[in-house]
Amino acid sequence: TxxxxxxxxxADDLIGRNLDAGRxxxxxxxxxxxxxxxxxxAARVNRFANALGALGITREQRILVCVHxxxxxxxxxxxxxxxxxxxxxxxxxxxxxxxxxxLGDSRARIAVVSAPLYDTFxxxxxxxxxxxRIVVAGGEGADSVAGLxxxxxxxxxxxxxxxxxxCFWLYSSGSxxxxxxxxxxxxxxxxxxxxxxxxxxGIREDDVVYSAAKLFFAYGLxxxxxxxxxxxxxxxxxxxxxxxxxxxKRLREHKPTIFYGVPTLYASMLADADCPTRDELAIRMCTxxxxxxxxxIGLRWTERFGVEILDGIGSTxxxxxxxxxxxxxxxxxxTGKPVPGYQVRLIDDDGNVVEGPDEPGELQISxxxxxxxxxxxxxxxxxxxxxxxTRSGDKYSRNAEGYYVYAGRNDDMLKVSGIYxxxxxxxxxxxxHPAILEAAVVGHEDEERLIxxxxxxxxxxxxxxxxxxxxxxxxxxxxxxAPYKYPRWMEFVDELPKTATGKIQRFKLRALAxx
Length: 515
Ligand code: 3SK
What we know:
Strand order of the largest sheet: 2-1-10-9-11-12-13-14-15
Number of strands: 26
Radius of gyration: 23 Å
Bound molecules: 2-methylbenzoic acid
Structural class: alpha/beta
């Protein structure tokens, strides 16, 4: 690991190192509306830090950041950190009630939200006690990011935080209970670059990077913010949904050299008729995380583009990737080996360390980027952060050659396109539909061997099974939960398999579902 000075401000470091290296006029970011040099980024960050001061937001207070991938994201996120204010980056795809919970839990004083999300947040002003103001990113006027920055100075002395001070939060979800505010400290960001991005990915100043995973995810935050800033590379930001067409456009137009994706996107890009040829692109390295990359997708990608995908695993709690394949040593179908600087171990059901090959155990990680706690949640903090070890909830085995192989979750959580989905949350939504008596949701593999939710439904008497009813039920879930959570398949059954005490036997449903 690296040694940081006691007084350390992550935003000051990530911006300042580029100015000190004479890269002020080099392009730091390209978004859908423009190109921004490191000098411009530094000025924006300082203006936003000053604007927070003008709003009376002070050190250690929190702001919620629900912002699409545009220049406003690094501006707001780093501006807050530079001011010692703690930004909480949240998923832009969630529902009003999700945001209401997060605002109440965090007691964020302001929410900075992209213009298209304003209507979702507006009713929460006056409803969530701590929320004083909504600031619009990408808008105009007094309550926009641009408006607040217009009269603010572009000079700002970084707040003298220590390397152990709170820096930012991300919300992490579990199979039960509310999402947990995962508190990261100032030293964590740069450690992810020093341990993973530089030595494993080999990121360099002359790289142009493009992450299909958004900045509000821990994976995207490293990919599109920490890593490029750590070496002075250029990052391409894209506000829209990461469809194959949107990704092809950026890959063709900006010729990134590093592409960070997730398995679902790699699969759909390969299946798309407009998939570029090798000569159209400049990618030299690709990464995958979020869910295990099926071997077949990795092989097909490498065959088409002549470039390896480094499959790895990280977590919101560990901030970025701690187990990864290496360039020139990619074993598709495995998640590779531990990233130096992290220790991993597998723990069996009796609490013993698994020594032998091919034996499953829970993956636990120790390393300098671990979050320090879940905010306001002692019970779950104690269950996850155990001394130097952080429990992942993932089951893994290690093969005879030392490569780690994913073996499912310890809980019932599903990873859908790289995002956690709680089957229990989907079930609770399903049973609010008037036709449904009981519901159970499990993971089911699609034709690309990627997991999506499948629902088993028992209808109330008087309702008939039909395609139309299935479509209505899917629409009901999409309307009430973040849309990626809806069950892609629906099977009507007479009853659900249960234990003598009435607990749903998900393993039986998983077998029925085909995985
Ligand atoms: O999903 C992952 O594997 C991941 C990777 C990097 C950072 C965060 C996460 C959750």
